[in-house]
Amino acid sequence: MLSSYRQALEIDEIGFRRIVVRHSPFSMKRAKESAIKWVEERSPRGRFHLFRRHISEALGAPRDAGVAGGGHPFDVELTKLPPGATNFPFHAHAAQWEVYLILMGVGELRAGDTVTEVTAGDTFVCPPGEPHQLKNIGTEDLVYYVIADNPPADVTNYPDSNKWFVKPQRKSFTMQETDYYANEE
Questions:
Q1: How far apart are CA 26 and CA 76, in angstroms?
Q2: What is the CB neighbour count within 10 angstroms for residue 183?
């Protein structure tokens, strides 16, 4: 059985010295990917349609919690887009980074002002502030992993529809500009 403490060595100017490092309060957890259920999400007219395996949730992390809320420092999902489907409306996160690893299929990545074909073996990063969207342009499912850094809060902008989304509240809205001091005095 492993102790909750680990001994490690640190190098300094005069040589080696022993230090003690406390383990994370999280214990190692394991999940069988094939045992994690697919969760289907579909927009009312079906343009946005995907299936997701919430791997981080299967490993015990609460959704959209971040480390401060008892979650992991990153979220991992396996995603499947049927032929012709798009994952989400074109959007940009203010805080969240996302890494995509394409496993199977052919897709079209819209990122910023560019559109690029992606296929199995492609990997790309969507940094905060860069709008992005994936569409399956092939005849088979587009399957990929997405790994996000899971900030405790994020604001997402949808430039095509002028909407905003906030988490962890999970609320969508449009904005109307107002004076900074309106309704304050």
A1: 17
A2: 6
